[in-house]
Amino acid sequence: MTTIEAKTLEATLEIAATPEEIWPLVSDLPRMASWSPQVVKTI
Fold first, then answer.
1. Contact between residue 42 and residue 30 where contact means Cβ atoms under 8 Å apart
2. φ, ψ at 21 (rounded to 5°)
3. Count of other CB atoms within 10 angstroms of residue 26
4. Cα–Cα dist 42/33, whole Å
5. For the chain, what is the HEC assignment?
6. Cα separation of 41 and 35, whole Å?
7. 14 near 27, Cβ under 8 Å?
8. pLDDT per residue as tens digits for the range 2-36
9. Rounded distance, CA 22 to CA 5, Å?
């Protein structure tokens, strides 16, 4: 049996906005590929 180790990519950024303002942006998965270079395609 082969074991695959998960890798984690993490970054921290301070934004001058409330969580309520940011959440709709980061939870919009279809649009995430347009602003995140790590995401090349979403379903």
1. yes
2. -80, -35
3. 11
4. 7
5. CCCCCCCCCCCCCCCCCCHHHHHHHHCCHHHHHHHCCCCCCCC
6. 11
7. no
8. 787 888 888 898 999 999 999 998 888 888 888 78
9. 31
pLDDT band at 41 (very low <50, low <70, confident <90, very high): confident
Please give the structure tokens belonging to residue 28.
């919009």
Joined tokens for residue 6: 């998960």
Reading the block at residue 42, the tokens are 């979403």
Record the tokens describing residue 22, joined without a space: 């940011």
Whole-model pTM over 0.70: no
Ramachandran angles phi, psi of 25, nearest 5°:
-75, -50
Task: Give the model's pLDDT for residue 17.
Answer: 96
- Token pair for 2: 């082969």
